[in-house]
From TrEMBL:
Stated name of the protein: Hydrolase
InterPro entries: AB_hydrolase_1 (IPR000073), AB_hydrolase_fold (IPR029058), AB_hydrolase_sf (IPR050266), Epox_hydrolase-like (IPR000639)
PANTHER family hit by this protein: AB HYDROLASE SUPERFAMILY PROTEIN YCLE, MONOACYLGLYCEROL LIPASE
MF-aspect GO terms: hydrolase activity
Ranges where the AB hydrolase-1 domain occurs: 14-245
SUPFAM superfamilies named in the record: alpha/beta-Hydrolases (SSF53474)
Record organism: Streptomyces vietnamensis
Domain of life (superkingdom): Bacteria
A Gene Ontology term for the protein's cellular component: membrane
Hydrolase found in the keyword field: yes
Length: 258
């Protein structure tokens, strides 16, 4: 279970699941806004990220491990269900959680993520990157990918993103990469999601392009698709006002529990 998390505000629970290799502070604009506007915002550091230790690992942290950690956190906080929001790896964790525990999810937000299983080439690339991070640490990787995480024209968000990446434990990052290499295909799972969903993507995201978001939107029985202009892989930080407007409209569309 995550040992560090933010838990702010009152109202329906909004669980924010960060991506790789970040921590809960990638959601800071959303934590600040939605905890003030009628929601209980829960934003954990995942296993091995931020202030939550990795703990014992056999070398791979599976998406199911992260998902069960989150359910344990909901149990510990006495939260029966939540609007589950995940970005990138966090979106894949969200898909795994809704596959295993659909009763815990009353709304699903998938941002800049994709549902397909890894290809053979992708598995090799993730495992090779895991080896590299263990050898070299995070800084070289962070330097290389920063312009894909945050579009070059969104310089305001770049320092925070770079700091998060450099601060991540390379052992934890490598374990997550090896786990993601073994992920299942979530496309059938999406066709069975019985709650409303929101799919969000940055227009200039090259990791998870708009076509991936359109595929998820088509698979989900009840979903809305929002493309954030002038954003790449982290639209919630690059264009927080636009991202928050989409999330706010989605949250307002859900029937609040009595």
């Amino acid at each position: 279970m995550p040992t560090f998390y933010e838990d702010r505000g009152t109202g329906p629970a909004l669980l924010l699941v960060h991506g790789h290799p970040f921590d809960h502070t990638m959601w800071q604009p959303q934590i600040d806004r939605f905890s003030r506007t009628g929601y209980r915002v829960i934003a954990p550091d995942l296993r091995g990220y931020g202030a939550t230790p990795l703990g014992a690992t056999t070398g791979a942290t599976l998406l199911g491990d992260f998902a069960e950690d989150l359910v344990a956190l909901l149990d510990a906080l006495d939260v029966q269900d939540c609007v589950l929001t995940g970005l990138s790896m966090g979106g894949q964790i969200a898909m795994e959680l809704v596959r295993r525990h659909p009763e815990r999810v009353r709304g699903l937000v998938l941002a800049d993520t994709f549902p397909a299983a890894e290809t053979e080439d992708g598995r090799k690339a993730r495992n090779a990157m895991a080896d590299r991070l263990l050898r070299e640490g995070m800084r070289g990787y962070a330097d290389e990918v920063l312009d894909r995480m945050v579009a070059p024209y969104n310089t305001h968000a770049a320092p925070h993103v770079h700091r998060m990446m450099c601060a991540t434990d390379p052992v934890a990052a490598a374990a997550a990469l090896r786990g993601r290499a073994e992920r299942p295909d979530y496309r059938e799972t999406l066709t069975k999601v019985a709650v409303p969903a929101l799919v969000v993507v940055g227009r200039d995201d090259t990791y998870t392009p708009v076509a991936d978001a359109e595929e998820m939107h088509a698979l989900l029985p009840d979903s809305t698709l929002t493309v954030i202009e002038r954003a790449a892989h982290l639209p919630n930080l690059e264009r927080p006002e636009e991202f928050d407007a989409a999330l706010d409209a989605f949250l307002r569309s859900l029937v609040r529990p009595s």
